[in-house]
């Protein structure tokens, strides 16, 4: 690090080191396999690999797949994985055993769950969504509406305008609790209550919540939910997502992707579909077992860390980053793209900067990995399980250096890659 900045004592590098020394979650960093000289601020997009996940995949491949072959569906518990891991995820999101299955990806699960919600409200045609949500949610619902051909429409409303958009025409509100770009957390309890008051259902996307903040689906009376495990739950690239259906809806739940894994007796090989009685009816077909077993390690870490402790540290890391950016980069053109109150946002923070893309590229070249979201957001995620306070301090110092030296102007950083 170049020159020592003049900062208030509580924002010094020494203070950051002292916080690390007192951090009850500090030991978890040793459970991850991370590259050298890297400050990984992108766990909100792809969590890093737990070492136990790598060992578990190796074991599943060599022992369960190679040696036990097809007997592993029984002997290694493969067939039960969606349920067993679903029950573990349930504890992290305020659901009960038998209300969650791990399966497929979020986009697929959303298709299934929105269709199920519309079938529960057959005389209503409006779906309330936030237009600024992660686009796949919009695309999935648009495709579903076109497939159904029953005249459903999406009523887009943002943040504070959501409650007023919910009326007696609404079948379901489909919202992401923690916004993918701004990190803004919607009030799940209040919006769900408002939906129920209007006779509508509430379906929550927990992609940026699961593993990042304590979630209480049943405490909020949520009806349906989906989410992914490759972000804050560190499940691995493309690890299966999950879906939740409250117990009270399960007997009436009809979903369109009816396959043999959702059948009440899959090995009876009956000609006609007859759904399983519980959450199992939301399954479709054979699951990616190696990806599933990989994901269990991250779920296990989240359980042991405890979401209250994890959230408290993540909040503190984000607040430190925010304070350091304000102190060190106040005149560098960064505008906060997230709620200023750390309690009002999830595990990441966004800044708007017209040169966001090359700045992020320059940061990555220096080992500080965040990401860019068009048109001008750069995001920094604060996963508490493998980040230290001093990492946050060093990251802002490197950002300061890139801005002051003009290093980001190197034309190499302007070339846009396929995945930002
Ligand atoms: C990450 C994310 C997804 C991902 O969907 P996939 O089907 O896993 O690609 C969906 N919705 C939201 C809100 C997300 O943040």
UniProtKB/TrEMBL annotation:
Biological or metabolic pathway of the protein: Cofactor biosynthesis; NAD(+) biosynthesis; quinolinate from L-kynurenine: step 2/3; Amino-acid degradation; L-kynurenine degradation; L-alanine and anthranilate from L-kynurenine: step 1/1
Residues that bear N6-(pyridoxal phosphate)lysine: 231
Cofactors named for this entry: pyridoxal 5'-phosphate
Keywords on record: Hydrolase, Pyridine nucleotide biosynthesis, Pyridoxal phosphate
Residues passing through the membrane, by range: none
EC number: 3.7.1.3
Family: Belongs to the kynureninase family.
Protein name: Kynureninase
Organism: Sphingomonas colocasiae
